[in-house]
Amino acid sequence: MEKEHKKKLRSQDWFDPKDEKSAFIHRSWLRNQGTPNDYFEGRPVIGICNTWSELTPCNAHLRDFAEFVKKGVLEAGGVPFEFPVTSMGEILMRPTAMLFRNLASMDTEECIRANPLDGVVLLTGCDKTTPATVMGACSVDLPTIVVPGGPMLNGKYKGERIGSGTFVWQLKDKIKNEGFTHEDQIEAEICSARSAGHCMTMGTASTMACMVESLGLTLPGAAAIPAVDSRKKVLAQLSGRRIVEMVKEDLKLSKILTREAFENAIKLNAAVGGSTNFVIHLQAIAGRIGVDLNLKDFDTLGSKIPLLVNLMPSGKFLMEDFFDAGGLPVVINEMKEHLYNEAITANGKPIGENNKKAECYNYEVIASIDKPFIEEAGIAVLYGNLCENGAVIKPSAATPELMSHRGKAVVFETIEEFLETVDNPDLEIDENSVMVLKGVGPIGYPGMAEVGNMEIPEKLLKRGIKDMVRISDGRMSGTAYGTVVLHISPESSIGGLLGLVQSGDDIILDVPNRKLHLEVDDAEIQKRKAAWQPPKPHMDRGYNSLYTKTVQQAHLGADLDFLVGKSGDKVTRDAH
Ligand code: FES
Fold it and tell me: N or C terminus of the chain with fewer C-beta within 10 Å?
């Protein structure tokens, strides 16, 4: 009896006529789409969770992809139903797309659980759409496969590669120092976005695509295929076929997302030179599925891993080059000595077996493990009185000479103050200063915006200064670079020491010894603490209010505290 119950599809709780009235209701309304009877007779029902939106340009092609997934589901004997969830584009959303990651995860979770689904395909692309949907799916824990939407084709401007995102960070310097005109800018805009897809640097979207492939949540080789390459459509179709089998095998997320899979992802993120945002999203996913992962793990496991991929912003190539060179399977194969090769993946096979035949076709883009581009990459986690719960820095995107640095703080109390004063010729700042930005953490902004890579003051740019030490409780776009300390926890707005820093204070950054320290004596710190007043919230109604009251700090993944963990797929009450 027990065995029979386990074999029964979840969707049959809706469609099986044990209770004629509710089965009638559940089936009848679905029939208005022309649904034949056999759709309700034990075929796996697959939800295609689509983050398509024209306001999320990176995901604007996903409506088409859903059709390929549907084809695959039908071919394998399943029944597909596409449904929309909250979509988040980095470019247009204010105050920052990150504010809505947890909201979208909630939307995803509840849509999956509330509906008669046996398995799920997540269609994702722009930065937050991948972690948000994976987080939500983890809290239900059905068989789930991810189809990453794929990067845009390489940007090309006047014969040179132009990386989406990364070029933006060079724009100010180009306009101020290289005679870059408005016409040049218009031309560069279209050159850096010449096809459908997400940013084609190793920014956060590409990092997230590599993350889900490393975790085993995609079919092999999924991450790097460009959005417009016909092989991406094939991948979508094959993923549709595969999810039906995953349902039959009951290969749910918790069987794939083991501690070993997370360790593989951390190591592979280091090898590809992935974004610092990886840390915050992977921790949030681990929190949902119930795998113990802490901030230090990212340093312990990842920071000694060599950099094997030469992509912007750390290097010079783009995702299309990465795909042509063999993509993530080559990196996984090169990294086999460091990985849990037995970790199971969405196709039911171990990650090592999936990728063992991968060959590199361009060693300028993907290095062999014996001749890496950098010996130690990954993300360093810093501690000290300025970041008792941790802070992160990406050494491969930083200036080596600045990794041990002592300088005087130049403090910007808010992002508005920074924008108003950074280019003021009277601002007292030089290349040895440490730029400090407050109020951009999860609660302070709110949503922990990607403003941590503050632009260098104009007067220093004119002198040829390209990098400075910058610290904040915010994040940085994965397309950005520089000696930038991020994710300082606790954040300034809740009383972290960062909130007490004053211009002129000495700050010591010592990445080799993993230290970030404010050199101010204790008596002075106590005095400042006693006088400190928390800043007024920027938004305190609706979702923003819920968010700021319940969001966790960066070192825990910035999930809402009540969303951590999972409720599973059971719903005992019906609407009728
Ligand atoms: Fe969507 Fe970069 S803006 S991936």
Answer: N
Task: State percent of the chain over pLDDT 70.
Answer: 99
The reported pTM is 0.96
* Distant-in-sequence, close-in-space partners of 118: CB < 8 Å, separation ≥ 6: 9, 10, 11, 44, 45, 46, 78, 142, 143, 247
Cα 432 to its chain centre, rounded Å, is 32
% of the chain residues with pLDDT over 90:
86
pLDDT at 6: 54
Hey, what are 151's tokens? Answer: 């990067």
Q: Are residues 336 and 390 in the same domain?
A: no
Give the integer Cα–Cα distance in Å for 207 and 397. 14
Position 2 scores a pLDDT of 40
Flag whether 16 is in a domain: yes
- Residue 512: CATH number of its domain: 3.50.30.80
Residue 132 belongs to some domain of the structure: yes
- Helices marked H in 178-318 — which ranges? 182-191, 204-215, 230-249, 253-256, 259-272, 277-289, 295-302
User: 425-441 burial by CB neighbour count: b if 16+ within 10 A, else e?
Assistant: eeeebebebbbbbbbbb
DSSP string, 514-570: TEEEEE--HHHHHHHHHH--PPPPS--SHHHHHHHHHBPPGGGTS-BGGGSS---S-
Query: Whose CA is closest to atom 3 on ligand 1?
Result: 90
Give the torsion through C-alpha atoms of 315, 318, 322, 325, to 10 deg: -90
Q: From ligand 1's centre to the CA of 477, what distance in Å?
A: 9
CA distance 26 to 528: 62
Q: For residues 86 and 108, what is the distance between their CA atoms, to the nearest angstrom?
A: 8
Q: For Cα atoms 435, 438, 442, give the angle at the middle one, nearest 5 degrees.
A: 130
Longest alpha-carbon distance in the chain: 80
Domain range enclosing 240: 2-153+195-355
Q: Which of 171, 209, 393 is nearest to 319 (CA)?
A: 209
Q: Are 253 and 144 in contact (CB under 8 A)?
A: yes
For residue 442, give the 3-state DSSP assignment: coil
| Residue 518 bridge partners (DSSP) | 507
Residue 187 belongs to a domain: no
Ligand 1 binding pocket mutation candidate from 127, 152, 202, 278 (most atoms within 8 A of CB) = 127
Q: Is residue 177 part of a domain?
A: no
Tokens of 254: 């918790």
Which residue ranges have their beta carbon within 6 Å of ligand 1? 58, 89-91, 126-127, 165, 198-199, 203, 205
Task: Tell me the residue ranges of DSSP E strands in 67-131.
Answer: 79-84, 119-124
| Index of the ligand 1 atom closest to the CA of residue 89 | 1
Residues 393, 351 within the same domain: no
CA of 447 to the centre of ligand 1 (A): 17
Confidence of residue 115 (pLDDT cuts 50, 70, 90): very high
Measure the CA–CA gap between 422 and 437, rounded to whole angstroms.
11
The alpha carbon of residue 481 and the mean position of all alpha carbons in its chain are separated, in whole angstroms, by 16
Ligand 1 nearest-atom number relative to CA 477 = 2
In the chain, how many domains are there? Answer: 2
Which ligand 1 atom is at minimum distance from the Cα of 204? 4
Closest CA to ligand 1's atom 2: 199
